[in-house]
Design brief:
There is one protein chain. The protein is 50% helix and 17% strand. It is an alpha/beta fold and 288 residues long. The chain has one domain: Alpha/Beta hydrolase fold, catalytic domain (Rossmann fold, 3-Layer(aba) Sandwich), CATH 3.40.50. An eight-stranded mixed sheet has the order 1-2-4-3-5-6-7-8, sandwiched between helices.
Length: 288
Amino acid sequence: MASQQHVTAASSKLAKLIHFRQYYPERVLRVGVTDWRYRVLGNASQTLLAIPGGELVNDLGFEFALAICDSCRVIYPAYPSVSSLEEIADGLNAILDAEHNDSTAILGASFGGSVAQVFVRRYPQRVNALILSNTGVPISYLAPAVRFFAWIAQAFPWTLTRKLLRGPLLKTVDQENADTAFWTDYLNELFAARLKKSDVMANFRIQLDYHQRFRFKPEDLQQWPGRVLIAESDNDVIGPARRRRLRETYPTAKVHAYHAAGHAPMFARFDEYLAMVKDFLGSKEPVQ
C-alpha cells in the first residue's frame, strides 16, 4: 500500500510539472550575447522575482510558483552561463524591463540569496522587499572551500561530478524521502539533459568570486526603503555563525526560524513556507 501511495504521489507531481512547463513556457530575452530564459505566472499587481539557487533552472520550485501565483505575478528566471554576479544582476534587470516592471519583491534561496543581495545593492530602486532564504553573506574564509570543490568538479569526469552533486540536492528537496521516485527522475533529467559541466563550473567561479570580492555592511541599504525577511533553519548547512552574520547585516529584518527543515524549507515545510511568504508580502509593516 505504501509503495502504491508513493507511485501515485510521484505521478501527481509529474503531471503538475508537465502542466507547469506547458502552461508557462519559457520566454527568451537576448541581453548582449546571452539568452536569458524565464517564466511568468499570474497577473497580480505585486511582482515576485523568484530567482533559483545552485540548480540554475526555472522549474525546481514549480509547486511553490503555482501556489503563490494567485497572489503575486511570479517572474521565474533560469541562469545562463555567465562570468559574474554583475552580469546576472544586469540580466535580471533587463528581464524586469522587458516585463515592464518597475518594482518587485525578490525571493532568493541559497545561491539565489547571494544574487538577491548583489541585485538590491546594484538596483535598489527596483526592489521593494527582499526574502533571503537559507543563504549567507560573502565571507573570505569560505573561498578556499569553494575553490576546492570547484577543483574536484573540474578534475572529475562529468558522469562522476553530476553523481556527487545529485545526492546532496536530492536530500535537500526530499528531506523526508517522501517523493524520492519523482525527484530522482527529475534530477536525472536535470544533470543528463539540461545542465552541462560548463554550467556548473561557471557557477562555482561565480560563488568563489562572491566570497573573494564582495563585502556587505548594514549601512549599505540605509537609504533603501524596502523590507527584509530572513528564513533560516536550525539544522541548515548554513551554520550558526553564518546565520548570525546574515542577521547582523540586516538588523531590521524579520526572521522566520524553522526547526529541522534543512537547507530548503520551501520543500520540507511547504505550507508553512508558502504562508510565510504570502504574509510577508501582504504585510504593510514599516521598515524600522
